[in-house]
Amino acid sequence: MADSDPASFLTQANAILRKNLTYQKRNVWSNVRLIMIPFYLCLVLVGIQALFDSQVSNSLDNQCGCKCIHKTRDETCQMVCGVEYSTRDQAVFCAIPNPQPWPPLILIPLPRNRVVDANLTNVSCKQRNNCPVTILFTGNNQSLGATLSRNLFRRSFPMNYSDLLFSLADNVLATTYKGSPTNYLDAGIVSDRFIYNIQSRCTPNSKVSFSLGQSPLNFTKEMRCGQGLNLWINSSREINDDIFKGYLKGNSEGMINEIVAAYDLLDTNRTNFNVNIWYNATYQDDSGNMPPKLLRVPRLVSLMSNAYLQYLKSPRTRMLLEFVKEMPKPETKLRLDIASLIGAVFFTWVILLLFPVILTSLVYEKQQRLRIIMKMHGLGDGPYWMITYTYFLAISTSYVICLMIFGSAIGLNFFRLNDYSIHFVFYFLYINLQISLAFLASSAFSNVETASVVAYIYVFGSGLLGWLLFQFLIEELSFPRRWIFVMELYPGFSLFRGLYEFAQYAFQGSLTRRQGMKWKDISDSSMDKVFYIIIVEWFFSLIAAYYIDKMSSSGKDLLFFLKNPFNKYLLPQRPSLQKQVSAVSVEMEKLDVTQESEKVQKLMRAQRTSHAIVCNTMKKVYPGRDGNPPKMAVRGLSLAVPSGECFGMLGPNGAGKTSFINMMTGLVKPTSGSAFVQGLDICTDMDRVYTSMGVCPQHDLLWETLSGREHLFFYGRLKNLKDSKLDQAVEESLKSVNLLHGGVADKPAGKYSGGMKRRLSVAISLIGSPKVVYMDEPSTGLDPASRMNLWTVIKRAKTNTAIILTTHSMEEAEFLCDRLGIFVDGRLQCIGNPKELKGRYGGSYVLTMTTASEHEKDVEVLVQDVSPNAKKIYNIAGTQKFEIPKEEVRISEVFQAVEKAKSTLKVFAWGLADTTLEDVFIKVARSGQAFNVFS
């Protein structure tokens, strides 16, 4: 027997938690397969990395060269590796104890991109591809600027091959090739492009060759003369407009004008050397790093320093920057962490694969209406959300922890180099967002297959778009960063951005043998912005999901708060029609229905009542949509059902029975009127009503993997049954519906037959001896024996219970129901016990007679003689049916007339029947529908 108090929050939470754990136990292999997905993908990444290492990293071209040198008489040799045995490409991997010194270079634009003159108008040199190299000057002293600019470039190029580096450093050497990450091989010298010697005046076709370095790092370069051009600009503001044109950006005429550098002499004089050097920093290496460009800047500083020394001292004064060189290095190998580079898209798929799992689980409960039946049996929204959310969070957390363990165990630097705590925090935040999004998205789907297809499109589409589009935009420095932030508002891109940053730090860490991302790197890596986006979206999506769920379960419009509260006064009313319909309905209302309404009014005035259910003028109006008028499903229903009574509600489809049941079970609120269950208002005390209520829906709403016993334990806990009371109630329920024998109780419900499922649904509705039970066609689909057994169970259960039962079986209604009400178009047309209704609406006999077709007229004459008011209601192939008023005939008279007719007519068969409950139902339903059409 259920406790009088409703199940507490913790009791409900305990019930659904136990149900989820049992469900999880039944699907353990599905969970194992789910958790193994990260393991398989990590193995794929390891395989890709191993293939790359064997074919690329460990190939002979990407390691220091070796040679087998004969050192013994038996012609054996010893493998010796070093620079002297390497090709030029292999040499960079060898140990370099004494790195090659390189002459310092400045970076100049390509000839076709150079500034031509102060007005930027002369384009003839661009066509000849020999535009000068331009350096801008400004400052407070133009005459000083003119002097220093004359000292900047030499007029000739004397070459001293005995001291080549000194000779090269005494001139201004330039290249159009940007710097490299290291200076073991200067990209400007080893490339195929020319080296330019910038002079104040060039001899046509002047060029010179020189050799530099030792084999295999020796290079012969051709050096050409480059015309230097110094332009004075009046202010630094004009320089700002000229020098920061941007990398490969044209002016209004489409010309590209790039400047080598600009010197702002400021207040420089003979006693004060104060110079700002401006240069275009948009030249970068492919990864967007700045340091390679800085290798070209020292020569610009040296150039101006020497010009100033010559101004102070003499033209022969020099303080040369003779060479630049790297630090010594040991032998190295190519280490490219390909697994980390492509890990971003792989792990995007891995994390997002949880989304379809969660979404389909939620939609499954919605599609199978399991959420509704749990709510009907007393499960509140709070416990459901808390346990379901925690349940999915626990699964997701286990999933990502296994991912981190698998990835680290098999050696992926993506996990091993980056801080594990950052990994976990990022994944934990995102799986919370993902669960919230799944709850939010579940409100848009009612079919598992559709939800699954859309979810997997989202999973793989997000990974591919992140890899092919979003990553490209991140690395494209000209793309505005604010649009990157906007794109990260899409959850798939915020996940990809975080994984991309992990991948970049792991790749760089593997390349340089350093650690990856640490907490101090959060701001530099933009991970802090990703964290903020995920947290904010998590908060708002969770609130939106909960709000939509509450509105949909209560039947309210999502934007109800935006509706004008004065609309009902502004919209045109039709009082005359409403009054007319009301007057007609009062006039046509049957006496029994009126008496029921009067009884309800007396019960409403009484302080206490023995009636379990009291409904007082309940109405339900569904708002009109798409231009359709409002639909009145229930029209002022008044009904009182005492404890111990089974009330049968009969009516055609669409009569409003389901709307009435939905109001009584708390799924929708009444538009007007009130109803009380055990003295509790269904509008304000529904949580307490649930503890004394049972529901058997028309369709079996069961978990296919849970057994019958586990179903009853779950719903028993929702009814606040505990310990021995719960065990006893479950055993009694299983026994009452004949599910206790043969191990049926412990089989999954998905393996039950239709009749067994129906019996289990009835047992669920009756567990805990509820005070009120609603049964919607409980015996549908049962064989006669099972149906009779089920009726016996229901009849036994109504002793201390008020039952409202809907059915289309008149036999079931007569067997179970103490009273019946025929419901048509939202109204009770009549009410009473089956015998009363048949007596009230069935005042006629039905005579059926089958003869030869030629005797049909004779049969009609015979019936008219017996009863002048008899009506023919059926006629086909010699078989005729007549409705004979009871007050006009006696049964003996009918028998005598038929026996007399047999002597003159050939009567094949005949029969006389009293009016059935089915006849009453059809008659009342037709008259009720005719009235509603009229009204």
From TrEMBL:
<feature type="transmembrane region" description="Helical">
    <location>
        <begin position="338"/>
        <end position="364"/>
    </location>
</feature>
<dbReference type="InterPro" id="IPR013525">
    <property type="entry name" value="ABC2_TM"/>
</dbReference>
<comment type="similarity">
    <text>Belongs to the ABC transporter superfamily. ABCA family. CPR flippase (TC 3.A.1.211) subfamily.</text>
</comment>
<dbReference type="Pfam" id="PF12698">
    <property type="entry name" value="ABC2_membrane_3"/>
</dbReference>
<dbReference type="InterPro" id="IPR003593">
    <property type="entry name" value="AAA+_ATPase"/>
</dbReference>
<dbReference type="GO" id="GO:0005319">
    <property type="term" value="F:lipid transporter activity"/>
</dbReference>
<dbReference type="InterPro" id="IPR003439">
    <property type="entry name" value="ABC_transporter-like_ATP-bd"/>
</dbReference>
<keyword id="KW-0067">ATP-binding</keyword>
<dbReference type="GO" id="GO:0016020">
    <property type="term" value="C:membrane"/>
</dbReference>
<feature type="transmembrane region" description="Helical">
    <location>
        <begin position="384"/>
        <end position="410"/>
    </location>
</feature>
<dbReference type="Pfam" id="PF24526">
    <property type="entry name" value="ABCA12_C"/>
</dbReference>
<dbReference type="InterPro" id="IPR027417">
    <property type="entry name" value="P-loop_NTPase"/>
</dbReference>
<feature type="transmembrane region" description="Helical">
    <location>
        <begin position="34"/>
        <end position="52"/>
    </location>
</feature>
<dbReference type="GO" id="GO:0016887">
    <property type="term" value="F:ATP hydrolysis activity"/>
</dbReference>
<feature type="transmembrane region" description="Helical">
    <location>
        <begin position="453"/>
        <end position="474"/>
    </location>
</feature>
<feature type="transmembrane region" description="Helical">
    <location>
        <begin position="422"/>
        <end position="441"/>
    </location>
</feature>
<keyword id="KW-1133">Transmembrane helix</keyword>
<dbReference type="GO" id="GO:0140359">
    <property type="term" value="F:ABC-type transporter activity"/>
</dbReference>
<dbReference type="InterPro" id="IPR026082">
    <property type="entry name" value="ABCA"/>
</dbReference>
<feature type="domain" description="ABC transporter">
    <location>
        <begin position="613"/>
        <end position="850"/>
    </location>
</feature>
<keyword id="KW-0472">Membrane</keyword>
<dbReference type="GO" id="GO:0005524">
    <property type="term" value="F:ATP binding"/>
</dbReference>
<keyword id="KW-0812">Transmembrane</keyword>
<dbReference type="InterPro" id="IPR017871">
    <property type="entry name" value="ABC_transporter-like_CS"/>
</dbReference>
<dbReference type="Pfam" id="PF00005">
    <property type="entry name" value="ABC_tran"/>
</dbReference>
<protein>
    <recommendedName>
        <fullName>ABC transporter domain-containing protein</fullName>
    </recommendedName>
</protein>
<feature type="transmembrane region" description="Helical">
    <location>
        <begin position="530"/>
        <end position="548"/>
    </location>
</feature>
<keyword id="KW-0547">Nucleotide-binding</keyword>
